[in-house]
Specification:
CATH topology: Neuraminidase
Largest sheet: 5 strands, antiparallel
CATH architecture: 6 Propeller
Structural class: mainly beta
CATH class: Mainly Beta
Radius of gyration: 18 Å
Number of domains: 1
CATH superfamily: TolB, C-terminal domain
Order of helices and strands: EEEEEEEEEEEEEEEEEEEEEEEEEEEE
Oligomer: single chain
Number of strands: 28
Distance between the termini: 36 Å
Strand content: 35-45%
């Protein structure tokens, strides 16, 4: 989602104890008694940034040093890697406003990436070069690939909203709709799976891959479709309506809960669509990833910085 630089200082937000004040803790919503995937004694820690101009696309990558987080400082035009051992390292500069990343299942060490400047999906090859995978649909330039997710069959699904055309009048919008696309990264074959949303944004599959979920940033809704055996989508339904609009990235955790980044909070939604908890954020959150050896440490990108939540040990 496009962002603007905000006049806010994060120098005092290196570590914030969310349990130190009642208003700054993971908060239950309603009477639901769903198990919290994170403890109440929660620590929100800034690990990177503070002056990024847009930050999205967190992806945890395993490596021999214990793993690292890849993310894009989108309009700062740089891709970074963060690790506990080495801190923040510049990975790709310029990045063409890269906003989302996924490992390429067909090419070890490579990544599939959504670029907003070039309006395309590219491959970051292991040798450091880039290869265009898709930049057109039916002969027309894509809108603005924003977020993406992998299916276990190797296909890449991505949202293509029409952000940034007004502030960039030299760029021509060629498609007459905003699509959810399915892409074969090997052949480059691209198909539209849906074109009914106003601002399709965050996208992910359920853990069992029986449903595809997408947020619409123009609403407070997360929608879902059944994934059919022929790799098409069934009828769309509203999975959840959140308490606020501006929904960005969405991600399922190890319990099957959906985490959704909205205007001021990250919301936790149960598998049956009940909003049962929220985490207040000091800056508008944009996306979520789960990292660490057990993939149970939440990392949250915001417009200007990257945060990590430590989990309760009890």
């Amino acid at each position: 989602m496009p962002t603007q630089r905000l006049p806010i200082s994060l120098s005092l937000l290196l570590t914030v104890s969310l349990s130190s004040a009642g208003a700054q803790s993971i908060q239950r919503i309603g009477e639901f008694q769903h198990e919290l995937p994170v403890g109440k004694n929660l620590i929100l820690q800034k690990i990177a940034g503070g002056d990024y101009n847009g930050c999205e696309g967190p992806l945890w990558v395993d490596d021999e040093q214990g793993g690292h987080l890849m993310y894009g400082a989108v309009h700062t035009n740089i891709v970074y890697r963060w690790s506990q051992a080495k801190g923040v390292i510049e990975f790709k500069n310029p990045s063409n406003e890269a906003s989302a990343f996924a490992p390429d299942p067909h090419n070890p060490g490579a990544f599939l990436v959504a670029e907003q400047t070039t309006r395309r999906i590219v491959r970051y090859n292991a040798d450091g070069s880039n290869t265009t995978v898709a930049d057109r649909y039916q002969g027309k330039a894509l809108n603005r690939p924003n977020d993406l997710t992998l299916h276990s069959d190797g296909s890449l699904w991505f949202s293509d909203p029409d952000y940034l055309f007004k502030p960039r009048p030299h760029e021509i919008k060629e498609l007459d709709a905003q699509h959810i696309f399915r892409l074969d990264p090997q052949s480059g074959d691209i198909k539209s799976m849906d074109a009914s949303l106003n601002k399709p944004n965050g996208i992910t599959f359920s853990v069992d891959e029986k449903h595809l979920y997408t947020s619409d940033s123009s609403t407070a809704n997360v929608y879902r479709w059944p994934v059919l055996k022929n790799r098409t989508l069934g009828k769309r339904e509203t999975f959840v309506e959140l308490p606020e609009r501006g929904i960005d990235g969405i991600k399922f955790d190890w319990q099957g809960n959906l985490w959704a980044a909205a205007k001021t909070h990250v919301y936790l939604v149960s598998p049956d669509g009940e909003v049962f908890a929220k985490i207040p954020m000091p800056i508008k959150p944009t996306a979520i990833a789960f990292g660490g050896a057990d993939r149970r440490t939440p990392y949250i990108t915001t417009r200007q910085a990257v945060f990590r939540l430590t989990l309760a040990t009890n």
